[in-house]
Amino acid sequence: MTDKLQIAIVGAGIGGLAAALALRARGLNVTVFEQAHSPHEVGAGISIQPNAARLLMRIGLRDRIENIGTRSVGLSLWTSRGEPVPTPPASADSPSYHVHRVELLDMLNDAQAAGAVRFGHHCTGIRETDRGVGLAFANGVTADADIVIGADGIHSIVQREVGLTTNPTSEGIMAYRGLIRSERLSWAKDLRGLKMWMGSRRSFLCFPVARGRLINMVAFVPSDLESEETWTAPGDLKALAAEYIGWDAPVLETIGALDETFRWGVYDRAPLPYWSTARTTLLGDAAHAMVPHFGQGAGQAIEDGFALAVLLENAKPADVPARLKAYEKLRLGHTSRVQAASREAGRFYRSENEDVSERNRRMGKWMSAAGWIFPYDVEQEAAALL
Ligand code: FAD
Questions:
Q1: What range does the domain containing 99 cover?
Q2: Best probe residue, ligand 1, of 42, 54, 152 (max atoms within 8 Å of C-beta)
Q3: Is pLDDT at 218 greater than 70 in this prediction?
Q4: CA spacing 20 to 30 A to 380: which of 17, 36, 227, 335?
Q5: What residues form DSSP beta bridges with 209?
């Protein structure tokens, strides 16, 4: 092997692709191995908040994000009966964007160097030696790298290969999601931010994607069903409507306009005890899957990749174990705090019937979390460790 580090990333989701771009922007050699035969994502919306949007802009993606995203004017909160709940305005200096996941993934794929992403490669195992890591794939291909990054999501093979297991626990919540053409909703034509209705054990949120052509809706409801942790299980529109009887008119109009809905079970995970061995580490959901209530899963995955890029730039093969440990030290603590804040945010959104002082207490915690999550500059933090 040459002195230039060869990095293999397993998984071409948002985390793996963003990491590949960040690493390449600092001159590192990267190959991404993805099990799917072509780029794939589910049709759904996602918010890219300031902490992550800022990083993508630094590697030249500003125009592309502006092109696919709706710049958010922030969050507006409402009770289930349609009374406004006062919230602070979004920062104009550090924008966040609502995007369609398919368009985000296309953007990240299009920005890759030619040949950097190899589709149709399902990783079945890795073998680490003193000098490097061997990867094996279901199609019979093998590859060698100085470093392997497991960006292979909640059912991560790489996580298993470094000796870890996770025990997801149900949050007792199920989510319905759907996309609606915005012209079909009388109330949503000029929606530019995230609008959320908070109710007893339920919440309902909408934001625009595809430059305002579509409205993404997500409805969190209580459930004791063992739901699948998937984005593609079909949901029942009548069951969804039954959860929101008597809610504010835009909620009812939105449910009535849906042609189809999908459901998934919301599962929580405790922080892992470690992420890295000498030459292998994890990022994104493989490292720190979190409940979705702060909209930070992808954002934290993006931060991980940029942290690795700072720490691995100019590293020699002999430096790798220490650099991966530095990465783990920086990111495990921070993402554990974000996991906890995400849990708390969900409790806040579903707390309408609590007394107002309790709701304000929860809002205070939520605002203080936003105050350290959104301005966080992971590149600065990582550089301070060198
Ligand atoms: P994934 O997106 O799961 O990608 C993993 C990739 O690895 C996939 O392409 C997969 O095919 C591939 N792979 C898996 N196994 C293998 C293998 N063995 N070999 C090769 N390839 C493999 N986050 C936000 O930041 N903002 C939001 O608004 C937001 N909303 C959300 C709403 C919901 C309802 C949910 C459930 C999540 C939300 N998230 C949000 C979280 C976000 O979607 C995830 O955290 C993010 O997609 C994780 O990215 P990832 O790249 O780590 O994993």
A1: 6-167+269-383
A2: 152
A3: yes
A4: 17
A5: 214
Q: Dihedral (C-alpha) 181, 218, 71, 152: value to the nearest 10 degrees?
A: -110
The answer to pTM > 0.90 is yes
The structural domain count of the chain equals: 1
- Within a domain: 259: no
Predicted local distance difference test score (pLDDT) of residue 227: 60
Q: Does residue 228 belong to any structural domain of this protein?
A: no
Render pLDDT for 224-241 as a digit per residue (tens, 0 to 9).
766 666 667 899 999 999
Residue 273 lies in a domain: yes
CATH at residue 52: 3.50.50.60
> In the structure, which protein residues have their CB atom closer than 6 angstroms to any atom of ligand 1?
10-16, 33-36, 46-47, 121-123, 151-153, 157, 175, 284-285, 292, 295-299, 301
383 Cβ contact list (under 8 Å, min separation 6): 310
Q: Would residue 238 count as lying in a domain?
A: no
What is the pLDDT, as a whole number, of residue 141? Answer: 98
Considering only CA atoms, which residue is closest to atom 4 of ligand 1? 13
